Amino acid sequence: MGTLTSCSFSTMNLRFRMNPPISCNFSRRIQMKRMSKRSFGRLIISCCSSGGGNGNSNNNNGSSNDGKLEKDSSNLATVTEETAEERNGGGEASDSEDSSVSISSRPTISTVGSTYNNFQVDSFKLMELLGPEKVDPSDVKIIKEKLFGYSTFWVTKEEPFGDFGEGILFLGNLRGKSEDVFAKLQSQLSEVMGDKYNLFMVEEPNSEGPDPRGGPRVSFGMLRKEVSEPGPTSLWQYVIAFLLFLLTIGSSVELGIASQITRLPPEVVKYFTDPNAIEPPDMQLLVPFVDSALPLAYGVLGVQLFHEIGHFLAAFPRNVKLSIPYFIPNITLGSFGAITQFKSILPDRKAKVDISLAGPFAGAALSSSMFAVGLLLSSNPAAAAELIQVPSTLFQGSLLLGLISRATLGYGAMHGAMVSIHPLVIAGWCGLTTSAFNMLPVGCLDGGRAVQGAFGKGSLVGFGLATYSLLGLGVLGGPLSLPWGLYVLICQRSPEKPCLNDVTEVGTWRKAALGVAIFLVLLTLLPVWDELAEELGIGLVTTF
């Protein structure tokens, strides 16, 4: 243990004495996946040995330190000697040798700024060692020679590509139709490199203008497959998804019980409605109401499952893999929906739009059917025994749904403190509200993914800022705007990663469908203001 401690201390002294131009064992571009644990350990030990100032330090472990270790130590000592010469401005060799020998045996007096800069440089080197594996420079040379050229894409510049600069972005001039060139380059890359890399066609960053052939200027990025493709689902993720689903079942049942507020015992109602109530009631009083709460719970869960089935049905024919859904429980709506991740790279922006819209459209279709049937049953005297009474303020939470309910039920039924409706109305209402929230054009929500695919990542930034502003002001969603905004900021704020072909447009009809969907989302989440509610007879505004 003492040897390990002194070794770590010696290494730290060595690293703080480094300058950015130094080229030693730590500053080499070593790929972590190519370095074995034994080699990395020898590298650390060699640094400690050469920095200790004792020529016999390698003999403390006897024959365990082989010739390769001595070679590493001598190499590091040589580098340190060259560094000392650079610092002394070409001074005498004896001074450099003394500096190389005693680099860790005597303290170094330096300015705080210099020490901080050296530490910052070493942090970058550590991130390079521990970060994702980069593209092999030799492979870049081969790819430039065999893939790019006069007939496909003429490379003029190279830049880092990826979240950590682990890839290569080729900038230049396109020599053909973008889709044809991309398909040809993908085929040639597979022939030359096999399944080692993924090729992306993206819009050229900071482009000064469109391509002379029409459309945006394009560039080609390259990443290793193991770096660019999402990892498999782990056992713990399955466990978490299962626990969240159980909690969602509980929140859905709780919503069903709360919908029977006029039938619940007074002490239970007081505990959940009176903020001054401290002592909880006997929860055994809720058991008789569980059976009557199950139909509404089934409806809420059915909408969420139908939503996820829509995603999977749209992804399957495109060979796109999806993760298991992580349901988010909510006591007001039963569920906030689910987080479903892409487990493979999307082929193009059309697939991103179609898969993203399939879920909300499927959930909204089922919810609309439940909502419409529930309104019809609410006005049918034969189903009077199945009706429940809810506060009329519920219908003031959505401009679109409130107007539809007012037109169906009539002024007499809606202009009161309580309204008798069928449980399917609540299930459809919650499903439509959840689908609308998930269609908001922000972050990695379904609406954000669809906007990113249809209009580009730049448009998503503008849509996202507008959405955050409306949620923050409470304009959309009413009392649910704050918890939903926090949920998006914590879980869904990051945009989706680019597709393999992130340039080709999605077409006019997909953009039109998305525009109509966003317009309906705004009408669904926009509350009915008091003046309009009083004029239309939606609730008794003057009584509150």
Describe this structure in words.
The structure is a single chain. The protein has 544 residues and is of the alpha+beta class. The chain is 53% helix and 9% strand. It is built from 20 helices and eight strands. The chain has helices spanning 2-16, 37-51, 67-87, 93-101, 112-130, 137-146, 178-193, 225-228, 235-258, 266-273, 290-315, 349-378, 399-409, 411-414, 423-438, 446-455, 457-472, 481-491, 508-525, 530-536, and strands at 153-161, 167-174, 197-203, 218-224, 326-330, 334-339, 388-391, 418-421. The strands form three sheets. It has a four-stranded antiparallel beta sheet. Strand 1 and strand 2 (167-174) form a beta hairpin.
What distinguishing features does this structure have?
544 residues, two-stranded antiparallel ribbon, 53% helix, 20 helices, single chain, disordered N terminus, four-stranded antiparallel β-sheet, elongated, alpha+beta, 9% strand
